[in-house]
Structure formats: structure tokens, C-alpha cells
């Protein structure tokens, strides 16, 4: 992402969502802590651009698929959902021919986390006991590639981070080719 054209609109919507979430959940410290973490992204120079870049379409759709010989392995650096750190996720890619016209591509991976990683990622959340957590973090995807033209016919990507019942998130992308 070179420039986010509607950055002021995004910031205004964040203020509105934040105020509404706070009002409905003002007694829940976990929501307040999550709002504080996300607020940093809106205050820091380049924070909004970084968030948009992380969910930018080409990062999702292309996702290291083209120009590789299968199977292959990569390491991808990604921020955690709560923007408190970045993880290195080790991804394995596999390719299976479905029929004469399509290939199925699957990838999945998860980070290996040290005690120091856990402290950096979750230490700022007062309701998290670092000695008792075992986060489940997974990044996976499935694509169907048209062998005639090389385009993605369909795809799905899922990124999950489950730390505690009070601190979990998931995002899913579905990609469909429109004729």
C-alpha cells in the first residue's frame, strides 16, 4: 500500500465504533484493554496504512502462490490480531491436481512461541495469566487454480488466534472469480 486515500474516514469510523463498544461494554476491562491496543494503530504515524496493508487484497489473493515449484515452505512475518507483536509463521504449501482443468493448493502453518514471545504478545493484558496460556494460532488457506489461464477460481483463507475465552479473534477471506 502506497497511500490510503480515505484515512480520515477510517479514523472517524474507528472513533465511532470505539465509542459504541465502550458504551456497551464499559464494565469489561478486556474490551477496554483491546481498545487501547488498537488505539495505538490509529495514533502512530503509518499505523492505519500498516493495518490496511495487512488485509490488502493482493496479500490475500496472491499469497506467495505464483512462481513457485510445489511443494514448498516459507516463513511469513505477520502481526498478531491485537497488534502487540509480530510472529514468524512457518507455512507449508501443497499442490494437488483436481482434474484436467484445475489444481487445488493448500497451505497451513503456525508460529513457534517462546516465553518471551508470549510476554510481548499478551503481557499487556492484565486478565491474562502468562503461566497458564497455550495460544492456538493458525493460518491456513485453500485455493482452486484454473490451469487454462492461471487465475484463482476460488479460495478461502483463515487466520485464528485463540489465547483465552476473553481474548480470541478470527478472520476469514473468501475469494471467488467473477466472469
Q: Gist?
A:
The protein is of the alpha+beta class and 179 residues long.
Topology:
Layout (H helix, E strand, L loop, with lengths): L6 H18 L4 H15 L3 H8 L2 H5 L10 E8 L6 E12 L4 E10 L3 H8 L13 E11 L5 E13 L2 E10 L3
Antiparallel strand pairs: 1-2, 2-3, 3-4, 4-5, 5-6
Helix pairs in contact: 1-2, 2-3
Helical segment count: 5
Largest sheet: 6 strands, antiparallel
Note the beta-strand portion.
35-45%
Strands, total number: 6
- Structural classification: alpha+beta
Q: Please estimate the helix content.
A: 25-40%
Question: How would the global form be characterised?
Answer: globular
Order of helices and strands: HHHHEEEHEEE
Question: Please, what is the average pLDDT?
Answer: 81
Q: What are the low-pLDDT stretches, counting only 5+ consecutive residues below 50? A: none
Whole-number radius of gyration?
A: 19 Å
Strand arrangement within the widest β-sheet reads 1-2-3-4-5-6
Q: End-to-end distance, in Å?
A: 26 Å
Structure notes:
A hairpin with a 5-residue loop joins β4 (136-146) and β5. The protein has helices at residues 7-24, 29-43, 47-54, 57-61, 115-122; strands at 72-79, 86-97, 102-111, 136-146, 152-164, 167-176. The mean pLDDT is 81. The protein is globular and about 60 Å long. The two termini are 26 Å apart. With 179 residues, the chain is an alpha+beta fold. A 6-stranded antiparallel sheet has the order 1-2-3-4-5-6, covered by helices on one side. 30% of the residues lie in helices and 36% in strands.
Which key phrases capture this entry?
alpha+beta; 179 residues; globular; 5 helices
Amino acid at each position: 500500500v502506497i497511500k490510503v486515500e480515505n484515512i480520515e474516514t477510517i479514523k472517524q469510523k474507528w472513533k465511532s465504533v470505539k465509542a459504541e463498544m465502550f458504551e456497551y461494554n464499559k464494565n469489561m476491562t478486556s474490551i477496554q484493554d483491546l481498545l487501547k491496543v488498537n488505539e495505538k494503530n490509529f495514533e502512530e504515524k503509518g499505523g492505519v496504512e500498516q493495518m490496511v496493508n495487512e488485509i490488502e487484497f493482493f496479500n490475500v489473493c496472491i499469497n506467495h502462490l505464483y512462481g513457485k515449484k510445489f511443494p514448498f515452505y516459507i516463513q511469513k512475518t505477520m502481526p498478531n490480531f491485537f497488534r502487540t507483536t509480530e510472529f514468524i509463521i512457518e507455512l507449508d504449501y501443497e499442490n494437488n491436481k483436481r482434474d484436467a482443468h484445475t489444481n487445488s493448493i493448500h497451505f497451513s502453518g503456525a508460529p513457534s512461541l517462546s516465553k518471551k514471545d508470549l510476554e510481548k504478545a499478551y503481557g499487556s493484558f492484565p486478565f491474562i495469566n502468562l503461566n497458564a496460556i497455550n495460544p492456538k494460532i493458525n493460518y491456513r488457506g485453500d485455493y482452486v487454480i484454473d490451469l487454462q489461464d492461471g487465475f484463482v477460481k476460488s479460495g478461502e483463507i483463515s487466520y485464528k488466534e485463540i489465547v483465552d475465552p476473553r481474548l480470541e479473534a478470527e478472520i476469514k477471506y473468501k475469494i471467488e472469480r467473477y466472469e
